[in-house]
Fold this sequence. Notes:
It is found in: Gas vesicle. The chain is α+β, with helices and mostly antiparallel strands. Helices cover 30% and strands 31% of the residues. The protein has two domains: 3-108; 110-193, Alpha-Beta Plaits (2-Layer Sandwich). The protein has helices at residues 52-66, 86-95, 97-107, 127-138, 168-181, and strands spanning 3-11, 16-18, 27-33, 36-43, 75-76, 82-83, 110-119, 144-147, 155-164, 185-193. Strands 1, 2, 3, 4, 5 and 6 form a six-stranded antiparallel sheet that branches. The two termini are 14 Å apart.
Amino acid sequence: MNNRYVYGVVEGDPIEFETDAVGGASVVYTISHRRLGAVVSDIDTTDPEETDEDATRHDEVLRRIMNDGDGRAVVPMQFGMAFESDRALKNVLRGALPAFRRALNDVEGRVELGVKIVRAEDADVDADAVTERIADELEPIAAQSVGNDLFSDRLVLNRSYLVDREDREAFDEAIARLEEDEDDLVVRYTGPFAPYSFVDVTIGAQR
């Protein structure tokens, strides 16, 4: 397996650990350029199929990195980034060095949390009032937030929040208040995730 599958990009000390990785690999490690490191594992293709199992392995590798020590910043890559050589990968790191450093600075010490507010079946709710209430509770705590698709007619709000790790408890408490107060709504609270919604650095796989 001579190709390199990329999970994300970190800065600082190199990473190496054993785990069930994408494509049957068992070791995750970094390929470095200056202070940046692409977190990779070996893979036998540059076009991996996104199975449920490998998508889960991709996310679990990122979560393990995020939980390293007191928490480590990582710029996550979407599933499927694979390179045919270390040289090709280092060329990408070199070209995107300023963008990666900005992104790492933006997410340092922070995690992504997801909040969905679902209207109970047959309930009549004021969506604007609910959205305003959620914003009053959560926006002052979050560093950033971004809206996601309302893919169901019962979905009142679908939003991702970038939250400082030190503010996580306050955010949890705000969610608990919402769960207690909104009788006709279901609060679906997920995370922490790697901050996919708050980085805009993309790299193209090279074959």
